[in-house]
Design a protein that fits this description.
This is Protein phosphatase 2C-like protein. Helix 1 crosses helix 2. With 251 residues, the protein is an alpha+beta fold. Helices cover 29% and strands 24% of the residues. It is globular and about 50 Å long. It has one domain: PPM-type phosphatase domain (Phosphatase 2c, domain 1). The protein starts with a strand and ends with a strand. A five-stranded antiparallel beta sheet has the order 1-10-9-6-7. A five-stranded antiparallel beta sheet has the order 2-3-4-5-8, with helices on one face.
Length: 251
C-alpha cells in the first residue's frame, strides 16, 4: 500500500509550537498517537515529563515489535509498550496519579491477506472497500461521560464504565476496539487524530466525503479544509487542535 501522512501542531500554539500528535509508519503498519493536552487549569499530574515525551516513548516502544514483524496481538504490543513506558519513569514520577500524561492510539497492521486494527480513545480508523463502502472503527466512550468536568474525567479515566487511554495502566490495551478485515475488502485506510476527524465529527461532512478528499486531493488538503472550518467555528471546546492523518491506499 502507498502511504501518505501529515502531522502538524495547532496553529494557535505559542512558539515554539509543540505537536503532541505523532505519526509512525513502516513496512506493513501505521500508527497515530494523540497526546492528551493538559487542562487549562493547573493540574498536578505527578509526572515530571510532558505529554510529548509520553507520546514519543510510547511510539518508540511500539516501533521495535512492529518493525520486526512481531506476530503478537496488537493488544499485547500496546500493553507491553505501556508497561515499558511506565517502568521508565516509575522511579521519578507518581505513576498512580490519574492525571498522568496519556495518549490515544490508532494502529493498523497488514499483510497480503488481512488488515488488523486497534483503536483506543478518540482517534478513529476509516476503511473504504473497493466497492466504495466506508466503515468507521471508533471508540466513543469518552463522549458517553455524563459531563467533561475535571473530576468526572479523573474518576472515569481507565476505569470500567468510563473511558480508556494509553497512560500507565497496561490493562487499558485490552479495552481497545480491535478487529480484522480481509485485505481484499480494503481499498483505502485512514488513521486520524481528532484534530483531523473533526471534519466529519464536528463539521458535518460525511465520512465518505472525508475519504474522498484524502484519496483524491491528499492529507494536506484535508487539514487545510479543517483549518478553514476551525477559523470560522463558534463551537464549544478547543477551536484548534493538533491534526494528523495517515492514508494507506492501493493494493
Amino acid at each position: 500500500m502507498e502511504i501518505r501522512s501529515i502531522s502538524e501542531a495547532a496553529p494557535d500554539r505559542r512558539p515554539p509550537a509543540v505537536n503532541e500528535d505523532l505519526v509512525l509508519t513502516g513496512p506493513g503498519f501505521a500508527l497515530v498517537l494523540d497526546g492528551a493536552s493538559a487542562p487549562r487549569v493547573f493540574v498536578d499530574s505527578g509526572c515530571r515529563h510532558t505529554v510529548a515525551w509520553l507520546v514519543m516513548r510510547l511510539a518508540t516502544e511500539l516501533a521495535t515489535p512492529l518493525l520486526t514483524h512481531s506476530s503478537a496481538p496488537l493488544t499485547d504490543l500496546l500493553a507491553d509498550a505501556i508497561t515499558a513506558v511506565r517502568a521508565s519513569h516509575a522511579d521519578t514520577c507518581d505513576v498512580s496519579n490519574p492525571d498522568s500524561p496519556s495518549s490515544t492510539v490508532a494502529m493498523v497492521r497488514f499483510d497480503p491477506d488481512h488488515v488488523e486494527h486497534l483503536v483506543l480513545a478518540d482517534s478513529p480508523i476509516v476503511m473504504r472497500s473497493p466497492a466504495g463502502r466506508v466503515t468507521v472503527h471508533s471508540d466513543d466512550r469518552i463522549d458517553l461521560l455524563p459531563d467533561r468536568t475535571l473530576e468526572t474525567v479523573r474518576r472515569r479515566r481507565n476505569q470500567p464504565g468510563g473511558f480508556w487511554v494509553a497512560s500507565t495502566e497496561p490493562k487499558a490495551a485490552y479495552e481497545a476496539v480491535t478487529g480484522t478485515t480481509d485485505r481484499a475488502a480494503v481499498e483505502a485506510i485512514a488513521l486520524l487524530t481528532d484534530g483531523a476527524s473533526r471534519y466529519a465529527e464536528r463539521y458535518g461532512h460525511s465520512w465518505e466525503e472525508l475519504v474522498d478528499v484524502l484519496t483524491t486531493e491528499g492529507p494536506r488538503q484535508l487539514i487545510d479544509r479543517v483549518r478553514q472550518h476551525d477559523s470560522a467555528s463558534t463551537s464549544s471546546g478547543k477551536q484548534y487542535d493538533d491534526a494528523s492523518v495517515v492514508l494507506l491506499q492501493g493494493p
